[in-house]
Amino acid sequence: MAFSFFSSIFGGGNPTEPTATVSSIFIYPIKSCRGISVSQACITSTGFRWDRQWLVVNSKGRAYTQRVEPKLALVEVELPNEAFFDGWEPTNDSYLVIRAPGMDTLKVPLSGSCEVIDGVSVWEWSGSALDEGAEASEWFSKYMGKPSRLVRFNTASETRIVDPKYAQGYKTLFSDGYPFLLLSQGSLNALNNILEVPIPVNRFRPNILVDGCAPFSEDQWTVMKINNLTCNGVKLCARCKVIDLSACCNHFTDYHVKVGTVHFVVVKLNISSTSIK
Hints:
Blueprint: E1 2-3, E2 8-10, E3 20-27, E4 36-38, E5 41-44, E6 47-48, E7 54-58, E8 76-78, E9 95-99, E10 106-109, E11 115-122, E12 125-131, H1 134-144, E13 148-153, E14 160-161, E15 171-172, E16 180-184, H2 185-192, E17 208-211, E18 223-226, E19 229-238, E20 245-246, E21 251-252, H3 255-259, E22 263-270
Parallel strand pairs: 16-17
Antiparallel strand pairs: 1-5, 2-3, 2-18, 3-4, 3-17, 5-6, 7-13, 8-9, 9-10, 11-12, 12-13, 14-15, 16-22, 18-19, 19-22, 20-21
């Protein structure tokens, strides 16, 4: 199901008058690595297709994140342009392409079989995953400076349920907790107005960026309509120290301490149609 680039979004009030517009869509194929800005994306029961499908783990199968391995912020990820169109399926010539400073380009096939390994864990979840093989393991081990593997969520046998306290019956892959994170440009602008050095949008790692609404008004949105999809804002996301990470320099700053707690909206989508473009 394709998610269009410029979509009206209603955050309450008169449902015939759009409150904001979806200005950007971001997908993060490998958890904690750089995201991809796309013009449209397909929606699945776990969020945008390809989002957080892969995970880099240590020798014990535990997930790496930017919180403890900030150099992941320098890893660039690329998928075929057509991968974001409705109905597309990978062929033998389709790859997840991975680049990082000082490293040769790694190409991971999107089709084909992978070995199932047990003992993979991220936050509260543990289970099996698909091992992307020796070449990917060697690449990430060299880049991280310690034994590492690249794994893919095993959708055939595993399920990761979101916190039922906020959204019962929904699931996700390797994201921190929910299928989507929404951020408004107005909120980002308001924050940057009080900082000496502005923070770019990629620090917050949103899936959906909206524009045209008052700063922080999205904090109050409980029901949103994007095209013919209904979305529910289920909780605010307290941002961690990843927003302090300088993605170009691989080190942390003290923005989080200066501005205090920053929240953005976690949403779940009730899919009410088969296709939007």
